[in-house]
Amino acid sequence: MKHEYYADALRAIGGQLRDLLDDEQRKNFHQIAGRLNSEIEARHGHIPARVEGLVTLQAVLEAQGLRPYGSEDPDSYDKLLRDLAVTQEADKLRIREEARRQVQAEQADTFTPPTPMPLELLIEAAHEGEDEWRIEGLWQAGGRALFVAPFKGGKTVTMMNLMRSLADGEPFLGRFPVNPPAIDDVHDVAPILLIDTEMTQRQLGRWLEQQGIRNRHHIEVLCLRGRLSQFNILDPEIRAKWVRVIEGAQVVILDNLRPVLDALGLDENHEAGKFLTAWDETMHDAQVSESLIVHHTGHGQERARGDSALLASNDAIWTLIRDGDEAGSPRFFKALGRDVDVPEGRLEFEPATRRLSMAGGSRKDARADEAIPTILELLGQHDALSGRQIHEALAGTGFSRRQISEALIRAHNQKLILVYDGPKKARMHSLIPSSAPVRGSAPPVRRRTGSECASAPYRKAHSPAHEHDGESEEELAHSTPLPGMEDPSHDDT
Asked: How many CB atoms lie within 10 A of CB 86?
C-alpha cells in the first residue's frame, strides 16, 4: 500500500546516503540514529517499522550538519505516525468500497427482479396448497409472529408448550387447533427449529423433557449461549452459511431477541429493524414457512420494548401479561394482528408437566369474580335486593361500583343469582336456592385478597344486559367466567 511504498523508499534512500558518509559522519550517524530511536521508543513503547526509513534519512542529514524541518520536535514523529495510520485506514476503506461495488456489480449481473402477479392469479393461489393456518386463529401459514412477555413472566415455558403442540399436533394452550409441520423428505431434517439464546443445553433439555413431547424427532434445538456473535446474519456471507444450517425447517423460533441485538452491537430502540430485515431474508432464503421471535415487553407489559419496527414487521403479536409482580401472579394471554384477534384470557399452569392451558376470562373478569362471593353472602342474608341496595351495602368493602355491577352480571350468567323486575322498575337480585349459603353460618363480608380467585364452571354469557345503578349497558356487556388457577413456583427465564 502507499504508506508501505513510502517507508520502503525512505529506507532505500537513507541506506544509499549512509553509504556515502565518511568515517566521522558515520560515527555521528550511529549516535543520532540511536538518540532518535530512543525518543520514539520512549513515546510509543516500540519503533514502528514504517518510520525506520525516516530515522535513517534524518540521521544521515544531521550527521552531515543538516537539520531537517521538525527534527528538533519529537512531536513530528507522532504526526508522521498519525499520517501514516490515516493513510493505512483510508486505503482499507477504499479497498472495502471497491470490493462492495464489485460485489454489487456481480449481483446485478445475476439479479432478476420478481414479476408482478395479476390479482386473479393471486386470489387463486391464496386458496391452493397449504393450510390457511399453522395455529388456527393465532398464526397464519407463512406468517411471521412476535411473542412478547415481561421479564421472568413465563415466555420460555409458553414457547415450550408451543413446540409440543407443533410437534404432536395438540391444541396450543388447550384451545387453538394446530396443523403440525411434516418432515421435509428432500432435506430429511426436523421441521421445527428452536434457536435459544439464553439457556444452557442442560436446563433446556430438562424443561423440554418435562413437556412429554412424543414426536421428539420433529424438533431440533440450537443453543447459542456464549457464541451469539456468530449469528451475524447482517453479513451476507455469514447469512448464507446460516441459511444452509436452517434449510429444511418449516417453523423457526428465536428465543429471544435481546441477547442477539447486544451481541451484534445493535441499539434495541433504533436498530432492531436492521436485524428483522436480515431475519426475513434468512427465512426467505432458507424457505422457512413460519417464524416467531420472542422479545421482552416494556414496563407497561402491554407492548414490545424498543424499535417500533418490531410491531410493524410482524403479522401477529402475541402478548403474555403477568397481573402482579410476584412469581405466582396470574398470567394472561392475548393476540392481535392481521386476521388475528384473540381476547385476553387467563392461563392455568401445571407445575409437574410445565403445561399451560387457556381457561378464559380477562383481568377485568377476574377482578369482578373477586366480588361474587361477597355478593352471594349478602344476598344470603336477604330475600332480595335491588342493584342500588347492593351497591350501598357493599360500599365499605373496597369494591368499586363498576366491579360490583360486573360481578352481578357474571353471577347471573353463571346461574348463581336470579334477576327480575321489582317495584318501581327496580332490578331485583336474589339467590338461586342451590347457591344460597346457610343463614347464620356465613362468614363476615370481606374482600378477597389478590392471591384468591373465585372458581366457577365456564358458561358463555348469553343473557341480555341488565340495568344497574350508575353503570351503562356498554360498560357491563363484557362477561366471561374464569376458573382460578396459579402456582407460586411458576417462573422462567
From this structure: 11
CA-based Rg of the chain, rounded to a whole angstrom? 36
Calpha distance 455→359 (Å, rounded): 11
CA distance 210 to 298: 30
**Cβ burial, residue 226 (10 Å; 0-12/13-18/19+):** exposed
Residues 202 and 141 grouped into a single domain: yes
Higher model confidence: residue 36 or residue 233?
Answer: 233
Euclidean distance between the first and final Cα of the chain, in Å?
51
**What's the 3-state SS for 37-84?**
HHHHHHHHCCCCHHHHHHHHHHHHHHHCCCCCCCCCCCHHHHHHHHHH
> Do 339 and 371 fall into the same domain?
no
Domain encompassing residue 24 = 2-85
Q: Is residue 31 part of a domain?
A: yes
Do 378 and 302 belong to one domain? no
Quickly state the pLDDT bin for 493 (edges 50, 70, 90).
very low
Tell me, yes or no, whether 401 and 283 share the same domain. no
CA distance 473 to 75: 84
Which helix H or strand E contains 405, and what residues bound it? helix 401-413
Q: Is 321 helix (H, G, I), strand (E, B) or coil?
A: strand
> Do 254 and 212 meet the contact criterion of CB atoms below 8 Å apart?
no
Alpha helices in 352-400 (DSSP H): 363-379, 387-393
CATH number, domain at 144?
A: 3.40.50.300
Sign of CA dihedral 243, 246, 249, 253: negative
Both 196 and 299 in one domain: the answer is yes
60: nearest Cα among 19, 8, 3, 6: 19
The per-residue pLDDT for range 105-162, each reduced to its tens digit, is 877 777 677 788 888 888 887 777 656 899 999 999 999 999 998 888 888 899 999 9
pLDDT, tens digit, 9 for 90 and up, residues 16-40: 777 778 888 888 888 888 888 887 7
In a domain, 344, yes or no: yes
Same domain, 69 and 11: yes
Q: CA dist 2 to 6, 11, 92, 331, Å?
A: 6, 14, 11, 65
